[in-house]
Amino acid sequence: MINKIKNGREGGFIKLIILIIVVLLLMRYFNLTITGVLSYFHLTWTDIMNWFNQALNWLKDLFISVK
Fold this sequence. Notes:
With 67 residues, the chain is mainly alpha-helical.
């Protein structure tokens, strides 16, 4: 049973690596950049960082409420 769990985790990790490589190759083929994608959705790096900060605060509040 432990081998099945280990193989499942390794398989998921390999799928994640393959997905990242495919996305990077597609971005290269279509000449896309992360900044270009953010500009398309009218987002700035500060908006993204604020979103991450809000998510982090939400997680902190969640863990505090579970205590």
